[in-house]
Design a protein that fits this description.
Elements lengths: L3 E6 L4 H17 L2 E6 L2 H8 L9 H18 L15 H12 L4 H13 L8 H10 L4 H8 L2 H16 L7 E4 L2 E4 L4 H9 L1
Parallel strand pairs: 1-2
Antiparallel strand pairs: 1-3, 3-4
């Protein structure tokens, strides 16, 4: 029986971007299903004991940058370490991703496209035309998803999913939850792989 993964993440997380290829390989290898659950960064920091990047001590900010460069080189994944459109509010993109999941579309493809847009393509994911184009390139009706994403119902869902994540002890991105086990960080993907293998 295939496992189901609840994938909680910020759609502006560089660590989620670095995880894309390996996570997709793990999912395919185990025939797992993925519930894509984008969550709000600021409430997560505030409610779960984190510190937003601009408020971190300079030494922690420097180490983050060093680690991004090391992982990018180690994984041979190109990325812009200081993208033109970061930090930005990912809420509209997140609501579009939820709308895609609600409609039974390939939420994973849109999630990957949004993360890649930020960390590789220098695109602004707060721009509506950009989001529509990303969804359309994934084979979706981008305009319809945008319209749905701007509804009060999707805002309520986004807040509910964020609260659900906090109730599940999710405090950062990416976090993969399987059978009540939390795997936080792209550097925990090997543990997720082993867990799925039983």
């Amino acid at each position: 029986m295939s496992k189901s993964i609840d994938y909680y993440h910020f759609l502006v997380s560089p660590w989620s971007y670095l995880a894309i290829g390996r996570f997709n390989e793990i999912v395919a290898r185990h025939g797992a299903t993925v519930n894509y659950k984008p969550i709000a960064p600021m409430p997560t920091f505030e409610n779960m004991g984190g510190v937003p990047l601009p408020k971190r001590h300079p030494s922690r900010q420097r180490f983050r940058m060093d680690e991004l460069k090391r992982w990018s080189a180690h994984l041979d994944i190109p990325m812009n370490f200081q993208p033109a459109h970061f930090p930005v509010d990912p809420s509209l993109a997140s609501r579009m991703l939820l709308a895609a999941g609600n409609a039974g579309h390939g939420a994973g493809a849109l999630s990957d496209a949004v993360l890649t847009a930020v960390w590789k393509e220098e695109k602004n994911i707060t721009d509506r035309d950009t989001l529509v184009a990303l969804a359309t390139a994934c084979g979706m009706d981008g305009a319809a998803l945008l319209s749905e994403a701007e509804s009060p119902a999707l805002e309520e869902q986004y807040q509910a999913v964020t609260k659900e994540a906090h109730d599940a002890d999710v405090f950062g991105s990416p976090t993969y939850v399987v059978d009540g086990e939390n795997f936080w960080g792209q550097d925990r993907l090997d543990f997720l792989d082993r867990f799925l293998a039983g």
